[in-house]
Amino acid sequence: MAAEIIDGKAIAQAVRDEVRDKVTAMRAKTGKAPGLAVVLVGERKDSQTYVRSKKKACEEAGIESFGTDLPEDATEEEVLAVVAAYNADPNVHGILVQLPMPKHINEERVLGAIDYEKDVDGFHPLNIGRLSQRGREPLFVPCTPRGCIELLERTGIPIAGKEAVVVGRSNVVGTPAALLLQRRDATVTIVHSRTPNPEEICRRADIVIAACGQMEMVKGSWLKPGCAVIDVGINAKDDPSKKRGYRLVGDVEYDSAAEVAGHITPVPGGVGPMTIAILLQNTLEGAERAFGP
Ligand SMILES: Nc1nc(=O)c2c([nH]1)NC[C@@H]1CN(c3ccc(C(=O)N[C@@H](CCC(=O)O)C(=O)O)cc3)C=[N+]21
Fold first, then answer.
1. What percent of the chain has pLDDT over 70?
2. Got the DSSP string for 25-43?
3. Pocket test for ligand 1, best of 49, 141, 230, 234 (most atoms within 8 A of CB)
4. What positions does the domain Tetrahydrofolate dehydrogenase/cyclohydrolase catalytic occupy (predicted)?
């Protein structure tokens, strides 16, 4: 039995359409629009591509986009000055500092300098702290983990009372994804590079979120029949039959996993498009709070 494919592109488009309609209504009611500022430091090709698609997505949703590109050798003080200017700008409701930043810049210091009310990435210590505590609500939740949850919920996959395993413990995906699943009453385990028996633990899971950054690590033999698999990985795999010489694959070995799972996200076209859709949604929510009821 082959798994049902979770169409991340289509679900992301539905989210983007909802955001666009709400932005249209906001413009009509208040004469104002949400604004997103994206700060890019350095010349990484992949980061430039992501930033470009974020700006394009903003335009399509009617969100104003602002951007500052700094050179690879920009100082931490220069980055902090850009962040401070966007903090003070009333037309900006979301600030995203593209990661990773060059090594000489203290990421924690920069992320902590973003006004937590404009922290659309959800990486500010106050938002992470609230996410990790019961009964507290962060203003923003990190885009990729929130996108994973939206994919499950909009596909009708139950979370409460289920066993969920997150593969990977990064600050940007694995850890916040585990916290979000726990907040929805799943029983959550994180497996990571020092877990001796990840396969065995994964086989218990009704929901697997793979975010370990290791190409095709999670195999069909790791999965419980009928489980839901959300693949966060994006890896370039050599493929001479493609004109670019590679194709994108996830952290899940798709073909073997699709034979066992009940639902699975493809790469590309799964979690990636959701990350951008949720960024727009977070920016809209920031603007709604800024403009008041
Ligand atoms: N502060 C910060 N926030 C981020 O949210 C952030 C970041 N830094 N640094 C880099 C990662 C990566 N990321 C992606 C966004 C969209 C796709 C995406 O749309 N992918 C498509 C297309 C893939 C392709 O063709 O290249 C897909 O998977 O179908 C992927 C990855 C956001 N990130």
1. 100
2. HHHHHHS---EEEEEEES-
3. 234
4. 6-121
> What's the rounded Cα separation, in Å, for the pair 170 and 176?
8
Whose C-alpha lies nearest to ligand 1, atom 11? Answer: 99
Set out the domains of the chain in order of their start, with CATH numbers. 31-115 (3.40.50.10860), 143-272 (3.40.50.720)
pLDDT of residue 104: 97
User: Are 243 and 262 in contact, with CB atoms under 8 Å apart?
Assistant: no
State if residue 266 touches ligand 1 by the CB under 6 angstroms criterion: no
Determine the residue type at 245.
G
CA 117 to chain centre: 18
Q: Is 50 in the pocket of ligand 1 (CB under 6 A)?
A: yes
For ligand 1, atom 25, name the residue with the nearest CA. Answer: 268
Backbone phi, psi, residue 163, to 5°: -90, 125
Enter the ipTM. 0.93
Each residue's pLDDT tens digit, 42-92: 999 999 999 999 999 999 999 999 999 999 999 999 999 999 999 999 999
Strands of 64-70's sheet in order across: 64-70, 35-41, 94-97
Mean pLDDT, the chain, integer = 97
Which residue from 217, 215, 259 is spatially nearest to 234, judged by alpha carbons?
Answer: 215
Q: Which helix (H) or strand (E) holds 247?
A: strand 246-249
Catalytic residue at 13?
no
Direct distance between the N- and C-terminal alpha carbons of the chain, in angstroms, rounded to an integer: 49
Q: How many CA atoms lie within 13 A of 280 on its CB side?
A: 28
Strand locations in 21-162 (E)? 35-41, 64-70, 94-97
Q: From the CA of 68, how far away is ligand 1's center (Å)?
A: 18
Mean pLDDT of 217-245: 98
